[in-house]
Amino acid sequence: MNINHFRYIIAIAEHKNMSRAAKSLYISQPALTKSINLLEEQLGVQLFDRSAVPIEPTYAGKVFLAQAKKMLELNDYLEGEMRAIATSEKSQLTLGIPGERGARWLPHLLPAFSRAHPGVDVKFIEGHSNVLEEKMISGQIDLSFYTLPVGSPDIDFEVLADDPLIIIAARDSEFASQFDLSQNSPWTPYLIPARLLNNQNFLVVAPGSGMRRITEYLLERHGIKYNIKRELYRHETVVRLVSVGDGLAVCPCVTPIRLAIPDKFACFSLDNPVLTRKLIFAYRKNKILTPPIINFINLTKEIIATTPELVVRNVKVLPPLWK
Fold first, then answer.
1. Burial letters for 205-244: b for 16+ Cβ neighbours within 10 Å, e otherwise?
2. What are the pLDDT digits (tens) for 20-48?
3. pLDDT tens for residues 95-125?
4. How far is CA 78 from the centre of its chain?
5. Whole-angstrom Cα distance, residue 181 to residue 171?
6. What is the per-residue pLDDT for 99?
7. Does 89-160+278-310 match 164-275 in CATH topology?
């Protein structure tokens, strides 16, 4: 078995036709057929059902195909590493990250990673989670740092930490005026009934972002009929507009704290304990996790464990105090 066998199997599975697969590989169809026949004889299994139209992989073929993709990816990585050593070039890791999350996390992650791995050049692509997922699937991004939920079955992930979520309103807003806020904060949101949020005006980010997905999930799970007052690209803009009374929003607990304006908000929860989403590293399913990727994941876990301001913990939901 050699590396070409992997390429042949992948091409046949993609084209579902021996002639088209051979053409894409720049070899003759008889040569391709002979190579696959010899491989099947060597393995003792049939990899494709030739009687089907179009050609379909057998169960053994599907297992072989999944591993063949990994082997090709590992081969490409090793060849790249050898070229880098031969030419004194750096390895490269392309990280996908939402813009606001990058502003908060990269000053902690990048210097530490560069010190530990000076031979790895880290590139960044910013965008909403749907954009990052498209680029991971196409191979433009190695690893993405965002939050559940993922929107594609072709994406795998590793959970890093919990990210607690609250509903915010301006502290001097009409909505907040019904509460005694003496014990209210991002760390101590009030538990309120869902009916209070019916027909309220919400500010949201554009479709395709993780915050839009979790906002819709939370409000719809509780059967809340809400109005979208504004739809914005940046979540930080949403939060700042809420702080001046422009509506309500679903928000990570950490955002008002990071912006140094936690005292401008009344904070609420529909769940006890507070709803959390998962911070994750995501990557294309069946992707080989190379040493730079594994090292970046492990270093991020260490930084999360030792940098309290990055993740809010011990959020305690309180019963509301009414005026």
1. beebbbbbbbbeebbeeeebebeeebeeeebbebbbbbbe
2. 999 999 999 999 999 999 999 999 999 99
3. 999 888 888 899 999 999 999 888 888 999 9
4. 26
5. 8
6. 82
7. yes
Residue-range domain boundaries for the chain? 3-86, 89-160+278-310, 164-275
Q: Which residue has the tokens 């993405």?
A: 144
In this structure, the number of other CB atoms found within 10 A of the CB of residue 152 comes to: 14
Answer whether CATH 3.30.70.240 is correct for domain 3-86.
no
d(CA 1, CA 106): 43
**Start-to-end CA span in the chain (Å):** 76
Fold classification of 89-160+278-310 (topology level): D-Maltodextrin-Binding Protein; domain 2 (3.40.190)
Tell me how far apart the alpha carbons of residues 11 and 25 are, in angstroms, rounded to a whole number. 8
| Total residue count of the chain as it appears in this document | 323
Q: Where are the beta strands (DSSP E) in the chain?
A: 48-49, 56-57, 91-97, 120-126, 143-147, 155-170, 190-191, 201-205, 227-232, 249-252, 265-269, 276-284
150 and 283 Cβ atoms separated by less than 8 Å: no
DSSP string, 54-100: S-EE-HHHHHHHHHHHHHHHHHHHHHHHHHHHHHTPPEEEEEEE-HH
CA distance 160 to 304: 8
Q: Does residue 86 carry a pLDDT above 70?
A: no
Which residue type does 196 have? Answer: L
Topology, domain 164-275 = D-Maltodextrin-Binding Protein; domain 2 (3.40.190)
- pTM to 2 decimal places: 0.72
| Between 193 and 209, residue with greater pLDDT | 193
